[in-house]
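Figure 2 data, in text form.
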Amino acid sequence: MRRALLVSVQMEYAEQIMGGAKTVELRRRKPAVEKGDYLIVYVPAPLRQVIGVVTVERVIAGAPAALWRRVRCRCYVSLGKYRKYFSGAAVGFGIVLVRPARLELPITLEAIRSIQPNFSPQGYRYLTRPALARAISQLKRRRASAPAP
C-alpha cells in the first residue's frame, strides 16, 4: 500500500460497500489511487464517521454511457441517479473495490479533528502510509485514555 484515499460516501452506498454488494465507487474526477491502495469510507451527516476501509483493485474510466455498461451491476445505483451524477461529464471513473473491512469502533469526525483541527472530509483526502499510521496510533492512545461510557 502506498497511500489511502478518504472519500465521503452517503450512508446507503457506504453500507453497500461494507457489505460487499457495491464493488464500484463512482467519481467524476480521477482519483490518484492504484491497486493495493486503500479507500477509507467516511459517512457524512448525520453519522459523520469513518466506518471502514476497502482495498482498491483498479480504477476504470470511460464515457458515462460506456462506463455504465461496465459497472451497472456493481455500482449499486439506478440508471436515473447515474445519469444525473454524470450529467455534463465527458468521462467518468469507477474505483473497483475488494476486501471491505468495517471498523469495530468507527472514527468520529470529532476524533479526527482532535488530531487535525481543520480537517474537512469534502472532496478527496489523500493520506500517506506514515500519516495514516500516525493518525491510527494517536486515535488508539486517545481511546485508551478516554473514560468508559
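Caption note: The longest helix spans residues 129-145.
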